[in-house]
Amino acid sequence: MQLRRILEQIMEKSKDDLTREALEGKQRELKGILFYVVAALATGIALYHLAVASPQFDAPFALLFRNIHWMMAGTLIFLYYPATKRSPANRPTLLDLACVVLTILLGLYVWQHWAAIAARAGAYTTTDIVLGCIMTLLVLEAGRRTVGWPIVIVAVVFLVYAYFGPYMPGLLRHGGYSFLRIFPFLYLTDAGIFGIPLGVSSRFILLFVIFGAVLERSGAGIFFRDLSLAMVGRYTGGPAKAAILFSAFIGSLTGSSTANVVTTGTFTIPLMKKVGYKPAFAAGVEADASTGGQILPPVMGAAAFVMAEYIGMPYINVVIAAIVPAFLYFATSFFMVHYRSLKEGLVGLPKEDLPELKDVLKKGFYYFVPLILLVVLLFRGYSPTLAVYYATLTTILLSWLRKETRIGLHDLFWTLGEGVKKALEVVAACAVAGIIIGMVTMTGLGLKFSTIIEVLSGGYLLPALFFSVIASLILGMGVPTTAKYIILATLVAPALVKMGAPLLAAHLFILYFGTDADITPPVGLAAYAAAGLARANPLETGIEAFKMGITAYLVPFMFLYGPALILKGSVTEIVLAVVTGIISCIGLGVAMQGWFLRKTPYWQRIIMFVGSVMLMQVGLRWDLLGLAMLALIWFLQYMANKAEIQAPQAEV
Q1: Which residues lie across from 599 on neighbouring strands?
Q2: CA-CA distance, 53 to 441, in Å (whole number)?
Q3: Side-chain half-sphere of 137: how many Cα atoms within 13 Å?
Q4: pLDDT value, residue 408
Q5: Is the pLDDT confidence value at 28 over 60?
Q6: Residues contacting 638, CB < 8 A, separation 6+
Q7: CB–CB of 236/338 below 8 Å?
């Protein structure tokens, strides 16, 4: 029973020290009466958004609702997030309170005058200009505090571009806009700060984060942890495979790869280290799985909602298209762990120390009900807002099936508030992204950028895809997934579609590479977070995570040229694509980890890698060639093993 004691120690550690280390310097721990006042405000925000989502309540006018959403979230941001590391850790400063007052006043101004603002239709007053300037600065400051400098710098670059348009070179040149037009445009239209990103945040993202918080409080986190261990814990590489499953279950519900690392990694990383995995590899597994949660249906983090809004397609269509690519992503992760474990001689956990699968399912099978309900409602045509509303209520009701998981009024109060706190970074990122999109819209940069990509690529799709990948990975150095997708969807996706890429495939392509940036060296935010928990070298962790997630760098190219991977085509084409995709995942696992039937030399690993890539190509010829290359390596290793077994017998 030693393992059970280890698990208990890890869970106790994860509740305090590890989580505190991972989140150190981010949010304040307010004290005294202020703690309860702000907590009540956070809960009130959650209740308001749930009420608006309910069928009994009519949502306000779009611009007005987004304004209220930001006014509430912005207030919490300035109260919870300190301006600098030297700021008080348990109370707001005068600067914070001034930002709060300004955020509320600017929100009330829109609330009181929105009819007059609509009637003016661009004829801005001096008040509009001044308040627009203040609003822009507040949003940038909120982004700096929550997400960091990278996204703020990107936004400022776009503001500078809008102002200095006449001095830009070549295709980038435009007439230029004064701040007298820029600031009120950002503040008082639905094409700026209160544009689509903040609209998606107010209607979908916050609600899904709340749903995830309620699901976690109801005991689902413990259930999925035990389920993961019961399913794969006793097999080769069991702890790491369980970490992949656990992170996948939770990661689909979070809006951030880094948040998922902190949530699940505090349990999975110490467990993997305890049973023999090197710190960098354990952290890499967690970073890879947590990042994969962003592309895993049915929720797919936050960016999927933005995608559905941008391309004007039902959200369920996005979910369906993402099923096979996500499956291949996690299948590759499983094979990576499997062959790494064989290479290092790491076996599974003792069966007697693991929970029984039937006992786990008997105790918590009903945790699947909210997720199934969510999917069923989406398939039946319900909006994501209404679907998650019903799923949240169902989760609260189901929590009462067991005494220890019941969510009473007291628990509900704190759970809703915690859900809102977890969403603040995404809300801030969406608001800052609104500034970027506003400047792209105002200057017409989207069309110009598409023309630039088309010229650089010579009008060919493949070079344009590589330019898109470079832009995605560069932008990914510090910019959250949702904001990355929004920027790329505005600048890059139109160019890809213009050159022949299917609309949905093009947007999934940039979502994948926007997500991949979280595990791409030398930065990779998810890898950095996991390295902190594992006390491992961040660069080594990033390399391990990159190797684990190699499929995510290949599959997007494949579904652009072979839409069967996103379930577009005949049944035969789809089945063939899935089968060859799975075989390809096996080959990639061997190529990256250096073990198949035995230790695999580099020349064999190269053949396995090339063959695996061919298997992902469209066309029977490529599939047969890829299969032949993988079969060759299997045959060579099989014969080598057979020769080693027979050699001692010959000596005797």
Answers
A1: 595
A2: 29
A3: 12
A4: 93
A5: yes
A6: 597
A7: yes
